[in-house]
Request: fold
Amino acid sequence: MKNFLLSLFSFSQVILMALVFSTLHAQKNQKLNVYVKNFIVNDTSLDKLGEDLTSEFETELINLNLYNVLERRRYDRIMRAMETENEISDIQNLGAATLDSLKTYRADALFFGTLEYYSTDGRCKITVTLQDIYKGNNIKKDYLYIVMGDINNPILRSQFLKSLLTKLYSNEVFNAKKEQFEFIDSKLRNYKARIDEITKKYQDLIGILLDDRNPVQYSEELNLKIESYNDLWRALNENRGKLLFDFGARWGETIQMYFKELYTLIMDDFHERFIRKLDDLRIEIVEYRSSEFSNKREKQIERKKIEDDTKEMAEEIQIEYNRKILPKVNE
Reply:
């Protein structure tokens, strides 16, 4: 993980990502439309808890961003059709009216949930099953146990539902994270490459830029490199809030704070110093070209100074990363 992060944060930061999941019943980049049926309980004393679980499971499912969730409060017709089918936990046993309602709203699959309390050990078993409305087969099914004392605690119940969904979609979540890192790594390498292009181009062109016999347009190639860097930096920076939120939703608050610190370090501190170094160097070049030197020796000394400053700028950028960013990545 550490080795991967070394490349992940080389002169850049986490960017806005769009996580796309594939499923067995959807084409790439296309999400299933799903509906969450009322959780079934094995004791009437758990009716209220079953209602809370249904609502909270739907919310966690929406946050997971795997499906287009047909929110229950917006589809009264489906809820009314299911009023007499509260104890049904299989698509094959649903009535024609219910299936017609689901199909009318273009639902592809239905989530069933059961809450079973075992008085012998005080534990509850929660099972969720996702079934294809048209084929009737199970797409996903899994369960977890939780003690009654914990399930009555809203905070612990929320953590439990997150764990259940993580277990249910372990492969999809792993693949999504992998895809996300690969996408980010690609963008960050591009960001680093643009910085390297600028420093290299300065060193390649410094002799031409300092020759006042050459027209100013010789610097256009360098300006294009700088504009390209600025365009990318702006695109990454404008999405700062959303990308950090999205990343935190996928990786958790602790990792989110870690990335936020690196983001600030690279996008604010490093960027500002990098741009300042570029500006200082450009001013030196402009002043050199416009100055009238008293003798050739004086001009040669100033030229050598700017050439050395150009080389030093490139070296300082690498030192900046090694001393301030790299140790943070290695934590």
Observations:
- Residues 170-209 form the longest helix (40 residues).
- DSSP finds eleven helices and six strands in the chain.
- Confidence is low (pLDDT under 50) at residues 1-29.
